[in-house]
Amino acid sequence: MPLLEAVRLALGMIRAQKLKSFFSLVGAFIGVTFLIGVISIVNGMDRYMREDFAAKLFGVNTFTLRYRPFVHTGDVSEEEWRGWLRRPKLREADFHAIRDALDPEVLVGIESYNQVEVVVGQKRSRNIEARGVSDTYFRIRNYDMAQGRTFTPLEVEHGANVVVIGSEVAEKFFGDVAPLGRTIRVAGFPYRIIGVAKAQGRVFGQSLDKFVIAPYTSQIKKAVNPHLIVDGVIVKAPTLPAMQAAMTQVEAVMRTRRHLRPGQDNNFHLETQSDVLDFWTKFSKILYTALPLLVGISLVVGGIVIMNIMLMAVSERTREIGIRKSLGARRRDILSQFLVEAATLSTTGALMGIVTGIGLAKLVDLTTPLPSSVSLNSILLGIALGIGVGVIAGVYPASRAARLDPIAALRFE
Amino acid sequence: MTDAIIRTHDLAREYQMGAEIVRALRGVDLEIQRNEYVAIMGPSGSGKSTMMNLIGCLDTPTAGQYWLNGVEVSQMSEDELARVRNREIGFVFQTFNLLPRASSLHNVELPLIYAGIRAKERRDRAVAALESVGLSDRMDHKPSELSGGQRQRVAIARALVTKPSIILADEPTGNLDSTTSEEIMKVLADLHQHHKQTIVMVTHEHDIAAHAERIVTLHDGKISSDSRKAA
What we know:
The complex is a heterodimer of chains A (about 425) and B (about 230).
Chain A: H1 3-16, H2 18-58, E1 62-66, H3 78-86, E2 90-91, H4 92-101, E3 107-120, E4 123-133, H5 137-140, E5 145-148, H6 153-158, E6 162-165, H7 167-174, E7 183-186, E8 189-197, E9 202-203, E10 206-207, E11 211-215, H8 221-224, E12 229-230, E13 232-236, H9 240-257, E14 269-272, H10 273-316, H11 318-326, H12 331-367, H13 376-403, H14 406-411
Parallel strand pairs in A: 4-11, 6-8
Antiparallel strand pairs in A: 1-13, 1-14, 2-12, 3-4, 3-7, 3-13, 5-8, 6-11, 7-8, 9-10
Helix pairs in contact in A: 1-12, 2-10, 2-12, 2-13, 4-9, 10-12, 10-13, 12-13
Chain B: E1 4-17, E2 20-33, E3 37-41, H1 48-55, E4 63-68, E5 71-72, H2 78-88, E6 89-92, H3 104-114, H4 119-132, H5 148-160, E7 166-170, H6 178-195, E8 198-202, H7 206-209, E9 214-219, E10 222-228
Parallel strand pairs in B: 3-8, 3-9, 6-7, 7-8
Antiparallel strand pairs in B: 1-2, 1-4, 4-5, 9-10
Helix pairs in contact in B: 3-4, 3-5, 4-5, 5-6
């Protein structure tokens, strides 16, 4: 019997016995819904972590030299933690040494920060991040200006009291008034606003636009760090290999400056976006391990239900099988008829699961910041699983049907 | 060997019933020519059902040979027998044996599906077969929407549609009243006379058997009489 004919027959069967069919496809339905839903959400989160989160916070081909890791995964022992705190801090001199050692095409910048109080007229806010940076910072972090300009190397050299503010700060303190040229008090020091950065958006609901950025040499340094101490030296290379080369160079420079002997551990840390992605990778691995388990259980249950329904169908339709055999159906015709019927059942469930899974992913997409996206692969996998479960669950009932004796089957009441 | 469509030699069939062995057929030699209309008669337990199953290739003998259309079918495998049934035999059953959920048309198409015939030709042939039994206006009806006589005519159309060597009718009027029975017998007689169809009919009713031109009577698994109507 041609496949199409068998599928049509099977669909007719499903229509004729709606309730029974519904129960038999529920397993495949739930399994595939899980599959599509979870894969889409995890994939979406994955993309989010890599493209948005990691790229926004760390930048591409960028690493930061710190005296200790700021992002860490897993347990850090008390002892290890105390060891980190005992390490020497980074100094401005380290920054100069690194900049001198690296290729000119590699950008090197300074970044220090602290939460400070910002005041404009009567308005004040305590939880604004003040950053003291070098002029290269804006290029390293890809900050474009919505208004005004960034500061010049000369302004950094002189420690000019100029500041670039984030879009949310501009909004909060100035509203409709143009902020350029106005004065803003950062940790008590008066600064002139020369630029407003373009909005960076949010990561996990946290605004990336609540900052003021001033030259690290300006008065702000008194509020963010002890004299000559910096929080981080950021390095951005044009390519990944160049970044890796720069990391090696920076490590060498720092080891020399810290007089570390061969075999002695680094007492500083080079942080890349992979540090934060490590954490995410571990987390998503857990999800990806749990997923097949969930999907597997519901598919196995679904398969057992389908097998039982099909066994019932075979005994209910013994007469039909006898008729078909008397008209010339061979064993394999009967076998394929019931296999296709089982597969059609589970595939219908799988298709419903795909639709629901996509709906679930869309819902997450619309109601949360996670850009969940359904991949074609997971849809294909869903369909394949649907067909597979049906065929496997159908083998035993179908072979029983195929082996029926035509005479006994014809006489069956 | 002349133009025999069915030829059996010493055909025997035994069944194991618990510890007992039931010998349903004990050596039957039967020859049926092309274009014959034969009734197989006998009281219950005479072996006529067994005979019908063997002739219809639904079963294989425990001993003896059976040639259908010159081909020995007594040693064939199940799937080979299925092919023979599909091509050579058109069944008409006492209980009609139509698929309850399918339309008349689909029921008649069914053997053509297993013959691997394309949908277009299948449909055309099924329509023609239904027309030939006078049911062209009942093609989309399901068996439950048809009378007994109409159902049996659908079954006859289904038997005819493959152009089989023989039509094998098993108590074709057993579930019908006498008027409808006559009607069905007329359809069969017409097939025999005008379309030269070979028909083998199993029945226990004498007046039904009287429609055939030859009556073979079985008794205790053997042929007890074989009489021909004078032409």
